[in-house]
Write a structure and sequence with these properties.
Blueprint lengths: L14 E4 L5 H5 L3 E6 L9 H15 L7 E5 L3 H13 L2 E7 L5 H9 L3 E5 L4 H15 L3 E3 L8 H5 L15 E5 L4 H13 L4 E7 L25 H4 L15 E7 L1 H15 L5 H14 L8 E6 L13 H10 L21
Parallel strand pairs: 2-10, 3-4, 3-6, 4-5, 7-8, 7-10, 8-9
Antiparallel strand pairs: 1-2
Enzyme class: transferase
GO molecular function, one term: cysteine synthase activity
Pfam families: PALP
């Protein structure tokens, strides 16, 4: 028997090595790429970690009390984690997100956990979403705003996915993560750099939205990263430093992948390694492969965060080709004829 609840299962996700997806150049460089499978958290993403710790810290401090309503603005996975934990703890929950088609799964999953969902004008972007949510909380007594983009607790430890030993003692040479709130980069990055001062922390942005290098934000489809505004946590690594090429505090480089590249590498990972990930993980893998081909990466170990599971993105362009094929393969209504043979479809001939 066990007294664990669903919240107790968060964390301790596996770290696995990939081989077949590596480019010939990466293999020739004898680079070891390890992927941290954060999609194996119960809510399906790395954001379960911060949702758990932010809410439980608020309970400990007395800021969040029984009977209050938890509110958060989010691009999705954080909202799902919060909705799941609110369901387990008995809190009412409101999740605010942009009204965009790729957010369909996020809407559905949050609603399935019992949360209400408020959808804001996409054209107003993150500033509009943030302003609406803050105004909602201010006008309603008993509402608690999580605010994961600013929560002071994030960097020290709560987004630090434990990098367990892989074979012998693991020495991480490169740590690669996408930039959502910036909490994983600062929290995990700090921990790894303490263990190995030569570890390089690499932050990944969409090529279309390299705001931490001072570039303009343009639309992209890599959900979970690239909100279009410099994050609080990365800004605070070097207050006053202009956003430009180069390092920032413990972050060695800001690299990027495009929307199409993120889909390409997420698809490759599923088909060559049996690991199904979302677009932001495709982006981090693409950057890992770029690094693995550098001469200075020879013989090094690269740890990549896989933030979420690919099955969560069926409304995303990641699944467009497969959905089109499935629509043809599985017509509505189905062909119920008994006179046209037995086999109606062979995907190898599609």
């Amino acid at each position: 028997m066990t007294d664990m609840n669903i919240i107790d299962t968060i964390g301790n996700t596996p770290l696995v090595r990939v081989n077949r997806v590596l480019t010939p150049e990466a293999k020739a460089n004898n680079v070891r790429i390890l992927i941290k499978l954060e999609m194996q958290n119960p809510g399906g993403s790395i954001k379960d970690r911060i949702a758990k710790n932010m809410l439980e810290d608020a309970e400990r401090s007395g800021t969040l009390k029984p009977g209050m309503t938890v509110v958060e603005y989010t691009s999705g996975n954080t909202g799902i984690g919060i909705a799941m934990i609110c369901a387990a703890k008995g809190y009412k929950c409101i999740i605010c997100m942009p009204q965009l088609p790729p957010f369909e799964e996020r809407y559905i999953v949050c609603r399935m956990f019992g949360a209400d969902v408020h959808l804001t004008a996409p054209a107003l972007g993150m500033p509009g979403l943030k302003s609406y949510t803050e105004d909602l909380v201010e006008k309603n007594e008993g509402y608690f705003l999580v605010n994961s983009f600013l929560m002071k607790l994030i960097p020290p430890f709560i987004t630090r996915p434990r990098v367990r030993r892989f074979g012998s003692n693991l020495n991480v040479d490169y740590f690669i993560t996408g930039v959502g709130t910036g909490g994983t980069a600062t929290g995990t990055g700090k921990y790894l750099c303490e263990k190995n001062p030569n570890c390089k922390v690499i932050c990944v942005e969409p090529t279309e939205s390299r705001v931490h290098l001072g570039a303009a934000h343009t639309p992209h489809t890599i959900l979970g990263i690239g909100a279009g505004v410099p994050t609080h946590f990365l800004t605070e690594l070097a207050p006053g430093q202009p956003f430009a090429e180069g390092s920032r505090g413990l972050v060695s480089e800001f690299l990027s992948a495009s929307s199409s590249e993120s889909i390409e590498w997420a698809t490759k990972l599923a088909k060559t390694e049996g690991i199904m990930v979302g677009p932001s993980s495709g982006a981090t893998l693409k950057v890992a492969m770029d690094l693995a081909e550098r001469p200075e990466a020879k013989g090094k170990t690269i740890v990549v965060i896989a933030a979420s599971h690919g099955i969560r993105y069926t409304a995303h362009p990641l699944w467009k080709e497969m959905k089109q094929e499935a629509k043809t393969a599985l017509p509505q209504p189905p062909n119920m004829s008994k006179d046209e043979g037995t086999l109606f479809w062979d995907s190898s001939e599609a």
